[in-house]
Amino acid sequence: MRDSDRSGTPTSSTHAPHSFVIVALLGALPRGHEFRTDAWPLHVTLVPPFTTEAAASHVERVVEQVCRDFSPVDARVLARELFGRRRDVPVVTLEPSGALQDLHVRLLDALEPVVIGSTRSPHVRSGFRPHVTDRAGAAPSPGALMRLSHVAVVERDSASAKGIRRLSDVILLGT
Predict the structure, then answer these.
(1) Cα Rg for the chain, rounded, in angstroms?
(2) Which of 10, 110, 129, 163 gives a 20 to 30 Å CA spacing to 51?
C-alpha cells in the first residue's frame, strides 16, 4: 500500500510501474484522446518518457500544479534538422525560450521524486533542445510562430490496447 509523505509524494506502492511522457500539444485535444504510436499528434516533448509507480492521478496533479505558474508559451520555429542516433528523424527545432526551458526544468524537478531511475540525461535540462517531430511534413515551417498552451500527460502503456497512447490529462497553461 502506498502512503504519502507530507508533500503528497508516494512512499510505497500497490501500482505496477507504468510509463508517461509530458508534452506541449500544438493543438487542443481532449483528455482521454487515444492514438497509435505511429500517429502522435504534433507536440514538443517537455519531459521524456519516464517510469513511475505513482498513480496517474498523482502524476497529473504534479503536472497541473507546475502548469498553473505558466502562461501560454510562444515559440518560433528555427530550422529543419535530423535527430536520432542515425540522424533519420526529421524535426523542426524551436528558438531557445526562457519560458519553455523553465517549464521543462520545473516539470522535471517536480516529477523527480516519483521517477524510477534518473531525470538526468544528455537531452534534458541544459541539453534540452525543443523540437517538433515532423511526421509526414505536417510540422510548422521555419519562421512560424506557435503558441503552446496545452500540456498533456501521455500514458505510454495504456490498458486499452497495445501500441496505443492516451492523453490521461490535458492542462491549459495558466489555469
Answers:
(1) 16
(2) 129
For residue 58, give the C-alpha cell.
498523482
Is 2 among the domain residues? no
Residue 27 burial by Cβ neighbours in a 10 Å radius (0-12, 13-18, 19+): exposed
The letter for the amino acid at 162 is K
Question: Structure pTM?
Answer: 0.89
Q: Which residue range is the domain that position 92 belongs to?
A: 18-172
- Residue 3 belongs to a domain: no
pLDDT of residue 159: 57
Express as a percent the part of the chain with pLDDT over 70.
90
Q: What is the pLDDT of residues 88-103, one digit of tens each?
A: 999 999 999 999 999 9
